[in-house]
Amino acid sequence: AEALLRWQRNGQWIPPSEFIPVAEETGLIYDLGDWVVNEACRLLAGFRELPGCEALVMAVNVSTRQFTRMGFSDAVLAALERHRVPAAQLELEVTESLFIDELGTTQECMARLHEAGLRFAIDDFGTGYSSLRYLQTLAVDSLKIDQSFVRGVIDNHGDASIVRATLSMAQALKLTVLAEGVESEDIREFLVLLGCQRFQGYLFGRPVPAQAFREQLLSGEVAPPP
Q1: Angle at which helices 72-82 and 103-116 pack, to 10 degrees?
Q2: Which domains does the chain have, with CATH numbers?
Q3: Is the pLDDT of residue 106 over 80?
Q4: CA triplet 139, 198, 75: central angle to 5 degrees?
Q5: What are 19-56's pLDDT values in tens digits?
Q6: How far apart are CA 142 and CA 120, in angstroms?
Q7: Cα distance between residue 29 and residue 151, in whole Å
Q8: d(CA 41, CA 47)
Q9: Is there a contact between 94 and 60 (Cβ–Cβ < 8 Å)?
Q10: Are 78 and 107 a contacting pair, CB within 8 Å?
Q11: What is the pLDDT of residues 146-187, one digit of tens each?
């Protein structure tokens, strides 16, 4: 499962692409980010009590500014301890832009959290920083192929080549791969032929509030991967 932050104002939904940059500019991203991590751990603790959901993993997006703040790793570990959630069941998603600046700080923070058991995924892979050296030197567990490549994977030879190359590279580095934006069975089947085994997108379900997700878990409508 992935925790997504949404803001409703005056009956309208404001996308993260609009309010996250403002939060970063004003410094509110720190308090907001801490709240998101804590809330994700709180919800995950509740989901883990449901039958068959003991091993459910929750993914949380983390902004570059939030990640490089002093004390970030302490806040994450404190949230896990507060809600008694195993570190291995929290996955932090970061973008490639994190590795452009403050690489030393990033590497140290990732190493500490990874040693504690947390997982790390590179979100929107292929759209940011072009150097691949960080995949060897940093504590990365998985890659999420950006939906801009996934949606055109059947008809666009270039997109298919990028996806195929990413899968091959990840296999060599022993990284798992997830394809984002899968919206049709045809795309899923094509990705399977390329060697992809993990998927995310509207084909499998749309974002829902936490209570609705809990009900889906109870009914068996959705189930954690084995």
Answers
A1: 20
A2: 2-219 (3.20.20.450)
A3: yes
A4: 40
A5: 999 999 999 999 999 999 999 999 999 999 999 999 99
A6: 7
A7: 31
A8: 10
A9: no
A10: no
A11: 999 999 999 999 999 999 999 999 999 999 999 999 999 999
